[in-house]
Amino acid sequence: MEEAGLPYRVRKLSLGAAQRSPEHLARQPFGQVPAIEDEGLTLFESGAIALYIAERSDALLPTDRIGRARAIAWLFAALNSVEIVVQELAAIDLFHAQEAWAKERRPQVEERLCDRLALLESALGDKPHLEGRFTVGDLMMADVLRILRHTSLLARYPKLDDYKRRCEARPAFVRAMKAQMAGFDKASIA
Ligand SMILES: N[C@@H](CCC(=O)N[C@@H](CS)C(=O)NCC(=O)O)C(=O)O
Question: Which of 21, 48, 79, 135 is most deeply packed, by most CB within 10 A?
Fold first, then answer.
């Protein structure tokens, strides 16, 4: 919403019973976040939400057919080809680090992830963004790469690391992050 220059209001959700309330399950069938409500539409899944917002702003999606299709491909790639592997490592490191199976599995997961990161870095090449300009695909890809901040893995891919930092330095990202972090200082409400 910050990138698109659209106004928004954030509503937080407590972990636990509120996730399974009929009201929230009507917004998000799995009791998770995020979900948005906009002019009669209730929408879940971060990819669908990002695309919906992007379609309302030239800032996130080019207007030409080919540019749009390429940007949308990167949005899917971020979630389906990169996050899926990133999450596997994150789950091991953040939730199961001390378990024997996790210690045994981690090297394979890291190897698979590194292969994917190397190919992503090749695809990026020397460009500032995945396509000719910043799009919703970059927004999602950079956010997925941020999940790895508990590791030093990205440092092995300097172009990718710079790319992630470039996306994080965008004024809209800085504003969104500041607002999100400020929200953690306050009590959550259902
Ligand atoms: N595929 C969903 C995943 C949503 C998701 O994993 N949300 C997490 C927070 S980032 C959540 O709500 N976790 C709490 C839970 O699963 O109970 C999306 O992209 O929107």
Answer: 135
